[in-house]
Write a structure and sequence with these properties.
By secondary structure, this protein is of the alpha/beta class. It has a single domain (19-134), classed as D-Maltodextrin-Binding Protein, domain 2. Helices cover 43% and strands 18% of the residues. It has helices at 2-16, 34-41, 64-74, 78-91, 103-112; strands spanning 20-24, 55-59, 98-100, 116-121, 130-134. It has a 5-stranded mixed β-sheet, sandwiched between helices. The longest helix is centred in the N-terminal third of the chain and has 15 residues, at 2-16. The protein is globular, with a radius of gyration of 16 Å. Mean pLDDT is 90; it is low at 5-15.
């Protein structure tokens, strides 16, 4: 029993420190910083610096990378984010990013659409996408 608890604690601590990568299409040469990424995912920025349209895509709230992204980049908890988007949707001023269920699905979508921006566990990134920011 103790051994199982120790292993579970070790795995959870590794998840808590997993690096998150913000990913874009390989053709995207826009410089992105944390503030710009936050504006994009909060619906305050509708295009990349080069003027091309940007469409944010989020991981489902159960993903460890999603919690890390929301806390670190958006500076909001899951419940704060739900309240934020509920208000914008109710007033007709925005719609939340589409939610994706897995890192693999996110990578596949971003790799095939230059307008998309997303985030995944950094260990899952492959050559089909470009890492714009890591934290």
């Amino acid at each position: 029993m103790k051994k199982t608890l120790c292993i579970a604690a070790l795995l959870l601590s590794q998840l808590a420190f997993a690096e998150v990568a913000v990913i874009v299409h390989p053709s995207n040469n826009n410089a992105l910083d944390e503030a710009t990424v936050a504006k994009i995912f909060l619906g305050r920025e509708k295009s990349f610096a080069d003027g091309k349209s940007v469409v944010p895509v989020s991981l489902s709230e159960t993903a460890a990378a999603s919690t890390a992204f929301n806390d670190t980049v958006l500076k909001k908890s899951s419940s704060q984010l739900k309240a934020y988007w509920s208000k914008l949707v109710f007033t007709g001023k925005g719609t939340p990013p589409k939610e994706i269920t897995s890192d693999e699905e996110m990578i596949k979508l971003v790799a095939t659409n230059p307008s998309l921006i997303g985030y995944v566990d950094a260990s899952k990134v492959d050559a089909s996408v470009k890492v714009a920011l890591k934290f």
